[in-house]
């Protein structure tokens, strides 16, 4: 990733008030990009967006990706060169109760965005962020490659599979790599695993649930201790998205495809292992217990094959899972101590950039 590439670069980020979006916008600000964000208000209280004062270094527009008129106006005003689409309904369990909202946001959101982009001439690169759950999960032992079939058991996962199909249709129909010299737009999708990091307060997500229970000195309730997830710090896939966007701008059509950004195989760990490590690192008597109540279906095993990103983008994960968990504990304790969370989050970004091991 080239920091100089992003200086004064006009970047439009949807979902900038969310957990991943806030980390991304802070990173872009640190590289002096001209960032415009478009999203609903922060989805939680507290939120990383407010705690780290993310809006201070960017243009923040509160709007809904389901509103094509407002979205088009925001794109027209920003005239971005790079668009990174992260606005989403991101929760599996929430999608069971709110399937229509999930499909409207996760399927029609990209449609409205791509339509808005077709009306401006400034855009050169689009990265549509989906999820590892977009694949048809066969619960097998090997990792999923980018050419595996789309699927999704639950409304959230399926909606992201649909988003991938929408991306492919728009790439074929309007941003075709074979006609890149005519339209000049490179459209790619990015699929990441279970992202974790400081500043996540989302409902029904493991790390926020663990951290909240620890802070409140409650026993951490775990739904599915043997489920294996591809855990990675949020900065890992974000570095992939930024690297991919650079390639899309500088080299165009050959990178306009789907990409996996996941952890190393050894960091795909069971939920129980993760909880035990986090409670150990936090100390202070933190502990966990099994939540025996009936739960909706969630996949037990899913891993991503990241060999293509390594070979063609030169991207590799940097932080081992143990170090990632330590940074989350550091972030949580700093927040409890009322430290400057913008400065601390930016310092963790700098530490990630400088990591060489």
Indicate the overall shape: globular
Number of strands: 12
Query: Order of strands across the biggest sheet?
Result: 3-2-1-4-5-6-10
Give the terminus-to-terminus CA distance.
17 Å
Alpha-carbon Rg, integer? 19 Å
Residues in β-strands, percent = 5-15%
Helix content: 40-55%
Work out the helix count.
14
Uncertain residue segments: none
Q: Output the helix-strand order.
A: HEHEHEHEHHEHHEEHEEHEEHEHHH
Any key phrases for this structure?
alpha/beta, single chain, 14 helices, seven-stranded parallel beta sheet, 357 residues, globular
Chain-wise SSE layout:
Elements: H1 3-6, E1 10-14, H2 19-30, E2 34-39, H3 48-51, E3 59-62, H4 68-78, E4 82-85, H5 92-97, H6 99-117, E5 125-129, H7 155-173, H8 180-183, E6 186-192, E7 194-196, H9 206-215, E8 220-222, E9 228-233, H10 235-251, E10 258-261, E11 268-270, H11 271-282, E12 288-290, H12 307-313, H13 321-336, H14 341-354
Parallel strand pairs: 1-2, 1-4, 2-3, 4-5, 5-6, 6-10, 7-9, 8-12
Antiparallel strand pairs: 9-11
Helix pairs in contact: 2-14, 4-6, 6-7, 9-11, 11-13, 13-14
Describe this structure in words.
With 357 residues, the protein is an alpha/beta fold. The strands form three sheets. It has a seven-stranded parallel β-sheet with strand order 3-2-1-4-5-6-10, with helices on both faces. The protein is globular and about 60 Å long. 43% of the residues lie in helices and 15% in strands. Helix 2 (19-30) crosses helix 14 (341-354), helix 6 runs parallel beside helix 7 and helix 13 packs antiparallel against helix 14 (341-354).
């Amino acid at each position: 990733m080239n920091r100089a590439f992003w200086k004064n670069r006009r970047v439009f980020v949807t979902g900038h008030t969310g957990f991943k979006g806030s980390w991304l916008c802070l990173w872009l600000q640190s590289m002096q990009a001209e960032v415009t964000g478009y999203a609903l208000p922060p989805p939680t209280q507290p939120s990383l967006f407010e705690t780290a004062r993310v809006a201070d270094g960017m243009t923040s527009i509160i709007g809904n990706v389901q509103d094509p008129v407002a979205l088009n106006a925001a794109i027209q005003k920003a005239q971005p060169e790079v668009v990174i689409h992260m606005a989403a309904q991101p929760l599996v369990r929430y999608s069971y109760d709110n399937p229509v909202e999930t499909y409207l946001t996760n399927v029609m959101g990209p449609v409205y965005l791509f339509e808005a982009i077709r009306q401006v001439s400034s855009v050169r690169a689009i990265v549509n962020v989906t999820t590892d759950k977009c694949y048809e999960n066969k619960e097998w032992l090997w990792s999923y490659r980018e050419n595996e079939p789309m699927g999704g058991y639950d409304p959230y996962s399926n909606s992201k599979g649909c988003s991938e199909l929408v991306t492919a249709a728009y790439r074929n129909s309007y941003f075709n790599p074979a006609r890149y010299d005519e339209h000049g737009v490179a459209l790619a999708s990015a699929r990441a695993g279970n992202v974790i990091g400081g500043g996540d307060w989302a409902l029904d997500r493991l790390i926020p649930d663990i951290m909240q229970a620890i802070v409140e000195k409650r026993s951490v309730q775990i739904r599915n201790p043997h489920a294996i997830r591809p855990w990675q710090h949020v900065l890992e896939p974000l570095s992939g998205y930024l690297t991919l966007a650079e390639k899309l701008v500088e080299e165009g059509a050959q990178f306009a495809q789907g990409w996996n950004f996941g952890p190393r195989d050894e960091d795909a760990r069971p939920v129980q292992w993760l909880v035990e490590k986090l409670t150990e690192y936090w100390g202070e008597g933190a502990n966990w217990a099994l939540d025996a109540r009936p739960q909706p279906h969630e996949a037990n095993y899913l891993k991503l094959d990241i060999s293509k990103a390594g070979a063609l983008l030169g991207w590799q994960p940097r932080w081992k899972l143990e170090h990632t968990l330590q940074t989350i504990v550091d972030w949580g304790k700093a927040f409890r101590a009322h430290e400057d969370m913008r400065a601390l989050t930016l310092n963790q970004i700098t530490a990630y950039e400088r990591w060489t091991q």
